[in-house]
Amino acid sequence: MSSAQELKSRILEAARQQPAPPRQQIRRRVALTLATAVVVPVAAFLAVGAIRPGPRPLSLVLATSGGALGIALAAVWTAYGRGGQMLGRARSRLVAMTIAAPATFVIWKLAWSSRYHMTDDWATRPGLRCFALTVLLAAWPFLALASLRRASDPTHPRTLGAALGVATGTCAAVLVDLWCPVGHPRHLVFGHVLPIVILGLVGLWVGHRVLALRRKP
């Protein structure tokens, strides 16, 4: 049997084994899950102090957070959306986003911070709190999106998992950018970008365990 025929057989078998719930019920579940994916991290962000401009001018805060938001929305759209394809987006596109999102974020942040002379080292802020906060804010959105895509990818679930991890990590980085005024390169790489990378690596495992389309025994 060819690989294409085998893939079609796996999809049809999975569809037969799992009866579909009513469409309205699916829509309600998706809407509720997506709503909590937004509300939970925002509530946590408010609980830790919300926006803290520090010594940054408002124009710098708007520039860095606005650019980060655009990057995050593009990442989520790429990772979670299917692009009109039953099997979801191509592996190459997911890989490109997984690499580009954190790289673009840090380049954007450094470019604007240096323009405002805000890249000085803050010895008392190495980035530990930003690291923990990024992971905390991304945790539930990552799990929520993964649950909506559970057992749905027969071709590249690991890549999809990594893309979802990076996308939700980048969304969390937007809130952390509003909270943290530090623009030093070492702080940004450790506290803001490394957790995104780690979430992507965790996503590889989540993709294999949760997102992969499996035959029932």
Protein topology:
Elements: H1 3-17, H2 23-47, H3 58-80, H4 91-115, H5 128-148, H6 157-179, H7 185-211
Number of strands: 0
Uncertain segments are none
| SS content category | mainly alpha
> How does the major sheet shape up?
none
**Approximate helicity band:** over 70%
Mean pLDDT value:
82
Oligomer: single chain
Q: Over the alpha carbons, how many angstroms does the gyration radius reach? A: 19 Å
Cα end-to-end separation: 20 Å
Order of helices and strands: HHHHHHH
Strand content: under 5%
Number of helices: 7
Protein model, in words:
The protein has about 220 residues and is mainly alpha-helical. It has one domain (about 60-210). Helices cover about 75% and strands about 0% of the residues. It contains 7 helices and no strands. The longest helix is centred in the C-terminal third of the chain and has 27 residues, at about 185-210. It is globular. The two termini are about 20 Å apart. The model has no long low-confidence stretch (mean pLDDT about 80).
